[in-house]
């Protein structure tokens, strides 16, 4: 099980400062969608340059023109690129094909997918690398989480790695770990804490214990 730090509400210098604090306690750093919108793929490039040993995920949430966008994110140095589960199969296949060419990985974000089990089976058959259940900020705001969806994909996914994101904090981490995803994605649960390093260290410890 790995820990990914999601950076959504920062600019590039702030992102780099933040990662310096927690670097040794995370496996993957995510350049979040709002950061890509504000700063472009330059944010991915700068992060990879600053931390060549960390895996960098570009949260592009691709919906179309997938092969091209995966190629551009790969050129910027992303190791993992996200596409939406709601995208057409043709787009998912294009993303997977381009990622293979570039020796990169594709994470599918299941945000807003209604029939999670059916879509997860289809995506698994296409050959994506990760399937991630995700409660975005707008549904977190009304008290939702993805813990039941995580159990659902764990039941049906045979090949892809499983991941979970959306409002995970220290107090909910044990419940997430119990479901045994391959990847736990935490944003505000670390970045919103006064002692980010201690929080990331504690989360890493719990995750490594499994
Ligand atoms: O992709 C995202 C929002 O669309 C976030 O990166 C993801 O939800 C993780 O952040 P948090 O733990 O703060 O919810």
UniProtKB/TrEMBL annotation:
Orotidine 5'-phosphate decarboxylase domain sequence ranges: 2-203
Entry keyword set: Carbohydrate metabolism, Lyase, One-carbon metabolism
Molecular function in Gene Ontology: hexulose-6-phosphate synthase activity
One Pfam family of this chain: OMPdecase
InterPro entries for this protein: 3-hexulose-6-phosphate_synth, Aldolase_TIM, HPS/KGPDC, OMPdeCOase_dom, RibuloseP-bd_barrel
TM annotation in the entry: none
Pathway assignment: One-carbon metabolism; formaldehyde assimilation via RuMP pathway; D-fructose 6-phosphate from D-ribulose 5-phosphate and formaldehyde: step 1/2
Enzyme class: lyase
UniProt EC number: 4.1.2.43
Keyword Transcription regulation appears in the UniProt entry: no
UniProt entry tagged with the keyword tRNA-binding: no
The reaction(s) this protein catalyses: D-ribulose 5-phosphate + formaldehyde = D-arabino-hex-3-ulose 6-phosphate
PANTHER family: 3-KETO-L-GULONATE-6-PHOSPHATE DECARBOXYLASE SGBH-RELATED (PTHR35039)
Family listed: Belongs to the HPS/KGPDC family. HPS subfamily.
Name of protein: 3-hexulose-6-phosphate synthase
Lineage: Bacteria, Bacillati, Bacillota, Bacilli, Bacillales
């Amino acid at each position: 099980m790995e820990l990914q730090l999601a950076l959504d509400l920062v600019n590039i210098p702030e992102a780099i400062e933040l990662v310096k604090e927690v670097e040794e306690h995370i496996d993957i750093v995510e350049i979040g969608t709002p950061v890509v919108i504000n700063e472009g793929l330059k944010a991915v490039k700068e992060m990879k340059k600053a931390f060549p040993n960390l895996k960098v995920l570009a949260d592009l949430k691709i919906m179309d023109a997938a092969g091209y966008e995966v190629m551009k994110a790969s050129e910027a140095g992303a190791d993992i690129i996200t596409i939406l589960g709601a995208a057409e199969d043709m787009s998912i296949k294009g993303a997977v094909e381009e990622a293979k060419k570039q020796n990169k990985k594709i994470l599918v974000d299941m945000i807003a997918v209604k029939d999670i089990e059916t879509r997860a089976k289809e995506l698994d058959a296409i050959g994506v690398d990760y399937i991630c259940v995700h409660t975005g900020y707008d549904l977190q705001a009304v008290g939702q989480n993805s813990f039941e969806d995580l159990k659902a994909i764990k039941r049906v996914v045979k090949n892809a790695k499983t991941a979970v994101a959306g409002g995970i904090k220290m107090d909910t981490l044990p419940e997430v770990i119990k479901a045994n995803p391959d990847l736990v994605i935490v944003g505000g649960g670390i970045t919103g804490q006064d002692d980010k390093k201690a929080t990331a260290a504690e989360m890493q410890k719990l995750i490594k214990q499994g």
